[in-house]
C-alpha cells in the first residue's frame, strides 16, 4: 500500500532519515520500533507531508505521493496522529469529532445565509456519526466534556476517533501509548484491532512498549540511525543481533557473548 524507496531527510549535516526503504502492506498493523533518534518520527513526518524529503520516493497504491501536503494526503485517506494529542481544548469531545470532515456546508458564507436547512441536516448527521464513534471507542460518557479536560489516554482515543470521521485508509500512530495507563492502552489496542478487522484500516504504529507491539502488530520494522535495520515478526526482531546492538550497544552484546562462553 505504501512503498518508501531510498528516502532521505537531512537537517544540515544531520541525516535524520538516511536511505530508508520499506513497504507497508494493505490491511496490516505494522510496528515501527527503534532506539531514540532512529528517525522514526521524521520518517512519519515525511510520509505524511509535514516535512519535504531531501531525496527519495513515497508511493501509495502505485501513485507517487512524495512531498504532497497533508491536506491532499488527508483526502487520499492517509492520516497521522501525534505523540502529544492536538485537540481543540475548549470544544467538547463531540465537537472535536464533528470538526473533522472537510467541505462542510457551514464553512461558506453563502450557505450560512441561504442554506441553513442544509447546514442543520448536515450537523445532525455529523452529530450522529460522532456519537457512534464515541460509543465505538467506549468514551461516549465524555461526549459533552471539554477535550482539554480529559486524560492523556482519552485524548489519544479521541485522536483515533478523528480518523473514523472520514474515510481513512492508512493511519500513522506516533507513540499512542506515551503517558497512557495500562487500562486505557488496552482500550486503544482493542480499538485499533477492531478498526483493522471490521473496517479494513491499515496502521503503522511507532511504540516503545514491546508488549503492546506484540499484541497488536504482525510485521515489525526496526530503524536505527535513519535507515531500516531489520524486518520480521517481533520474535525475529528481538533475536536479531543487529537490533540487539542498536538497542544495547556493541559492548553490552560482546559482554553477553563472553558471559555465555565463560
TrEMBL record:
UniProt keyword list: ATP-binding, Nucleotide-binding, Transport
Keyword Transport tagged: yes
A cellular component term, taken from the record's GO annotations: plasma membrane
Pfam families: ABC_tran (PF00005), BCA_ABC_TP_C (PF12399)
CDD domains named among the record's database cross-references: ABC_Mj1267_LivG_branched (cd03219)
Keyword set includes Nucleotide-binding: yes
A molecular function (GO) term: ATP binding
SUPFAM superfamilies linked: P-loop containing nucleoside triphosphate hydrolases
Domain called ABC transporter: residue spans: 2-250
Name of the protein this chain belongs to: ABC transporter ATP-binding protein
Annotated source species: Palleronia sediminis
Highest classification ranks of the organism: Bacteria, Pseudomonadati, Pseudomonadota, Alphaproteobacteria, Rhodobacterales
Amino acid at each position: 500500500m505504501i512503498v518508501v524507496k531510498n528516502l532521505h531527510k537531512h537537517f544540515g549535516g544531520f541525516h535524520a532519515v538516511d536511505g530508508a526503504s520499506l513497504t507497508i502492506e494493505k490491511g496490516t498493523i505494522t510496528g515501527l520500533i527503534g532506539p531514540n533518534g532512529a528517525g522514526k518520527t521524521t520518517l512519519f513526518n515525511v510520509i505524511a507531508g509535514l516535512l519535504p524529503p531531501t531525496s527519495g520516493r513515497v508511493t501509495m497504491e502505485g501513485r507517487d505521493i512524495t512531498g504532497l501536503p497533508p491536506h491532499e494526503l488527508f483526502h487520499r485517506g492517509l492520516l497521522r496522529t501525534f505523540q502529544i494529542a492536538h485537540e481543540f481544548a475548549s470544544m467538547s469531545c463531540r465537537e472535536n469529532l464533528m470538526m473533522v470532515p472537510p467541505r462542510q456546508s457551514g464553512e461558506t458564507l453563502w450557505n450560512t445565509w441561504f442554506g441553513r436547512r442544509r447546514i442543520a441536516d448536515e450537523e445532525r448527521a455529523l452529530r450522529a456519526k460522532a456519537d457512534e464513534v464515541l460509543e465505538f471507542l467506549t468514551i461516549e460518557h465524555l461526549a459533552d466534556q471539554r477535550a482539554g479536560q480529559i486524560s492523556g489516554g482519552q485524548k489519544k482515543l479521541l485522536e483515533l476517533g478523528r480518523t473514523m470521521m472520514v474515510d481513512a485508509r492508512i493511519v500513522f500512530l506516533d507513540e499512542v501509548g506515551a503517558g497512557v495507563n495500562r487500562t486505557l492502552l488496552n482500550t486503544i489496542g482493542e480499538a485499533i484491532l477492531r478498526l483493522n478487522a471490521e473496517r479494513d484500516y491499515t496502521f503503522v504504529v511507532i511504540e516503545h512498549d514491546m508488549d503492546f507491539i506484540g499484541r497488536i502488530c504482525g510485521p515489525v520494522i526496526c530503524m536505527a540511525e535513519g535507515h531500516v535495520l531489520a524486518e520480521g515478526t517481533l520474535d525475529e526482531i528481538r533475536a536479531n543481533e543487529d537490533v540487539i546492538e542498536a538497542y544495547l550497544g556493541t559492548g553490552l552484546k560482546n559482554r553477553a557473548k563472553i558471559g555465555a562462553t565463560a
